[in-house]
Design a protein that fits this description.
The chain has 119 residues and is an all-alpha fold. The chain has one domain (10-111). 74% of the residues lie in helices and 0% in strands. It contains 4 helices and no strands. Helix 1 runs antiparallel to helix 4 (87-112), helix 2 packs antiparallel against helix 3 (61-80) and helix 2 packs parallel to helix 4 (87-112). It is elongated. The chain starts with 9 loop residues before the first helix and ends in a 7-residue tail after the last helix.
Length: 119
């Protein structure tokens, strides 16, 4: 019987946890009243979680590339959407966004540098 976790990468679990943290952050850290920051956190978290769950169920490299892009978006969103002055929201987005992007980049690097299987 094949190992059901053989193609699973720990980075996908990390991104799923980071998505949950990002989703909860407006309420837990008290910036749910800042509409741009809160909605960006909620929508981005849902996208990150969906991509992580997709990668856990049926891995495709494009899912990691999208998670990398979404993670970078989350990190720069405070300046693009204009909520950089809300320090808690800004730092939450920057830190979690860079962590998502780093996990995705690590997984992309890992799958592209796997040794070839011997025939």
């Amino acid at each position: 019987m094949a190992n059901l976790t053989s193609n699973k990468h720990p980075q996908d679990w990390v991104n799923l946890v980071l998505a949950v943290l990002l989703f909860l952050s407006p309420w837990v850290l008290g910036y749910s009243g800042q509409q741009e920051a809160a909605w960006n956190a909620w929508i981005s978290a849902v996208v990150i979680a969906a991509l992580a769950i997709g990668a856990l169920s049926a891995f495709q490299e494009w899912e990691e590339w999208l998670n990398l892009v979404v993670g970078l978006w989350v990190a720069v969103a405070p300046w693009i959407l204009g909520f950089a002055a809300t320090v808690t929201a800004m730092w939450t987005h920057v830190v979690l966004g860079l962590l998502v992007a780093a996990a995705a980049a690590w997984e992309i690097w890992e799958i592209r540098h796997q040794p070839s299987a011997a025939a």
